[in-house]
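stage 2 :: seqdesign
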């Protein structure tokens, strides 16, 4: 049976989101996953091997076997990297000039999952996604599973070595850091790196049940977890499910907004150019530290594409994922380590407070909504002086506040990001916008 990959998308609704293919587990059938992987490998062309890894969702083991079967049928050697962070398997692929595939739904609920694809030089771009959809594949089997080879720890070790080379052994000696482990696939790697750097660590909140931690829209329960445990530590750290997006909490147990992490990380790395999506906090611009700031649509492929061809460039997203030229995909560990090194001389809260005081708060309504009515209502209630439609609707108000509205590309939902000169005002504004959105729910 021959068909174009886009026919899978048209038939099932399973397609590319802001980063990778995602969908309900019930929709990610063996044939769907097999077809997407075969389409990706066919698009890449002749290859010797494929690196495969996954997160800790219940559905991941099965999907990894399907991915492996597609790679095997394509004629590629399977390198089973096991359960490691997305940036770890991506870095391994780059170092060995082979494609990599990560089975993960990132931060979305456990009833969903997904696949992230990496070429030999890094994350696929939006143009690659379109080319994959147009690729013609032929499925010659009804058996979509294969037993994966034994786990190869090389990818894990290479990823660890990256940070051991970047930071001196025991450079954080004397610091105490709490690790909110939940169901993050990289929690043990993060602990190992921190302890190599001399940190006294305590792991808490580990869960055998998958917890969808979103580093961009932090739920109230996560805030309470930080406050309950934070008084013991100099800092709190965590990541999302596939450990490519960071969370950092200060010495009081208060989690920082994740896009703030990118500002000091970029400065620490002596970057001259910073790329980030339009949803990121404008404290970056107000620092005046960087020669050039490039704004993109939301999604890691847009950040990677804008970084291409630039020198002394880094990128980051509102979810905290950080990009460098040697690892052009989201990474959670580097920004955490940079902030901890800086916190040897100042507390995390002081580092945050020394940045330009602009605060972002975000909310999400998990439902289908009437976007046209929402926009009309917002425009009638606020004095808008400038509108940016690079991704959704970003309104600059006459008092300097910002309201950004956008439908989620990864899951059912409608998000708002609000920015103001105080955290309380940002929360108040975001809650007000969220109530407006809720008033125009169509279903659910």
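stage 2 :: out
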């Amino acid at each position: 049976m021959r068909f174009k990959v886009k026919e899978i998308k048209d038939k099932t609704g399973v397609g590319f989101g802001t980063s990778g293919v995602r969908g309900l587990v019930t929709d990610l059938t063996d044939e769907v996953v097999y077809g997407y992987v075969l389409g990706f490998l066919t698009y890449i062309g002749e290859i010797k091997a494929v690196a495969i890894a996954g997160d800790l969702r219940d559905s991941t083991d099965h999907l990894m076997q399907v991915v492996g079967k597609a790679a095997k049928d394509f004629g590629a050697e399977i390198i089973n990297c096991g359960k490691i962070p997305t940036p770890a398997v991506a870095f391994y692929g780059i170092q060995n000039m082979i494609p990599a595939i990560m089975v993960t739904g990132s931060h979305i609920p456990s009833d969903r999952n997904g696949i992230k694809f990496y070429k030999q030089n890094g994350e696929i771009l939006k143009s690659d996604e379109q080319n994959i959809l147009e690729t013609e594949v032929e499925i010659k089997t009804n058996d979509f599973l294969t037993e994966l080879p034994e786990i190869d720890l090389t990818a894990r070790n290479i990823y660890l070595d990256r940070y051991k080379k970047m930071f001196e052994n025991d450079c954080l000696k004397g610091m105490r850091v709490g690790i909110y482990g939940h169901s993050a696939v990289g929690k043990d790697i993060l602990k190992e790196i921190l302890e190599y750097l001399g940190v006294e660590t305590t792991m808490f909140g580990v869960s055998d049940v998958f917890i969808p931690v979103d580093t961009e829209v932090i739920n109230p329960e996560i805030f309470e977890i930080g406050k309950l445990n934070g008084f013991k530590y100099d800092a709190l750290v965590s990541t999302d499910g596939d450990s490519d997006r960071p969370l950092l909490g200060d010495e009081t147990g208060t989690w920082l907004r994740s896009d703030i992490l990118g500002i000091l990380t970029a400065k620490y790395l002596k970057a001259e150019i910073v790329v980030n999506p339009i949803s990121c906090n404008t404290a970056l611009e107000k620092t005046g530290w960087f020669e050039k700031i490039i704004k993109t649509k939301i999604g890691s492929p847009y950040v990677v594409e804008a970084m291409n061809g630039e020198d002394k460039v880094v990128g980051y997203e509102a979810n905290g994922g950080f990009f460098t030229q040697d690892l052009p995909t989201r990474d959670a560990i580097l920004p955490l380590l940079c902030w901890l090194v800086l916190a040897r001389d100042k507390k995390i809260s002081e580092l945050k407070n020394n940045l330009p005081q602009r605060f972002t708060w975000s909310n999400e309504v998990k439902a289908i909504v009437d976007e046209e009515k929402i926009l009309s209502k917002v425009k009638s209630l606020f004095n808008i002086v400038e509108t940016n439609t690079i991704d959704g609707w970003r309104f600059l108000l006459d008092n300097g506040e910002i309201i950004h509205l956008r439908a989620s590309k990864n899951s059912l939902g409608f998000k708002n990001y609000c920015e103001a000169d105080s955290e309380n005002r940002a929360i108040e504004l975001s809650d007000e916008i969220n109530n407006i959105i809720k008033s125009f729910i169509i279903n659910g």
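stage 3 :: structure notes
- The chain is about 35% helix and 25% strand.
- The chain has a mean pLDDT of 94.
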